[in-house]
TrEMBL record:
Coiled coil: none annotated. The gene is rnfG. Its cofactor is FMN. This is Ion-translocating oxidoreductase complex subunit G. The modification FMN phosphoryl threonine is found at T188. Belongs to the RnfG family. Its EC number is 7.-.-.-.
């Protein structure tokens, strides 16, 4: 047999076996990975909306996994701050005793110093910020990573009811409950990315409640 043909057949056989093995490993691991991801999401939802009994998907194709980013893209772009670097990837309703008590909005902030930052934001039915849970982040340890590891930064947002948070660097944002948020020293880019992502979540909240046509299992979001 021609050596070139023989070598080609050997390479093909190796590639075929490797492909089959990879497919086998994927089939074995995909369900456990999906279950772990879902568990992490549910824990994040509960962290930012502890009073909810359950978290339910919004009804309608506009809020499906395939369409939700596009649903909110125009509103993010239309804002004066232009939040086009952010993506809304999921919105669920927190439900307690059969009533919607708020929304949990998952955002991918695209302008972090080390890349995308993904987190979930809880917003009460009256628009009050409830909390943020970081899902994935690759910022610098000891600097930008402090938005996740240090509670002080995110604590500034707590209990505020505002249309938009504003980043400051003069110490005036230390108190919780207002729109001013102090940037982390040495990590302005990361601080700004998270703040803008929270603002994007508030935009999504306002769009949904303004529609007054969104339902969760037949219960209106009003």
């Amino acid at each position: 047999m021609n050596k070139i043909v023989k070598d080609a057949l050997i390479l093909f056989a190796i590639t075929l076996v490797a492909g089959v093995l990879l497919g086998f490993v994927y089939d074995i691991t995909k369900d456990p990975i999906a279950a772990q991801n879902e568990k992490a999401k549910q824990e994040a939802y509960k962290e930012v909306m502890a009073d909810a009994d359950s978290f339910e998907a919004l009804s309608g194709d506009a809020y499906s996994e395939a369409n939700i980013t596009a649903t909110f893209a125009a509103a993010l772009q239309a804002d004066a701050e232009n939040y086009t670097a952010d993506e809304i990837t999921e919105v669920v309703a927190g439900v307690k005793d059969g009533k919607v008590i708020g929304l949990v909005v998952t955002v991918v902030a695209g302008d972090g110093y080390g890349g995308d930052i993904k987190f979930s934001v809880g917003v009460g039915a009256d628009g009050t910020y409830l909390g943020t849970s970081i899902l994935s982040i690759s910022e610098t340890a000891g600097l930008g990573m402090r938005v996740k590891t240090s509670p002080d930064f995110l604590a500034q947002f707590k209990s505020a009811n505002t249309d938009k948070f504003v980043l400051v660097k003069d110490g005036s944002g230390a108190a919780a409950g207002d729109e001013k948020i102090d940037a982390i020293s040495g990590s302005t880019v990361t601080s700004k990315a998270v703040l803008r992502g929270v603002n994007s979540a508030l935009i999504a909240y306002k769009e949904i409640y303004a529609a007054k046509a969104v339902t969760v299992g037949g219960v209106s979001v009003e």
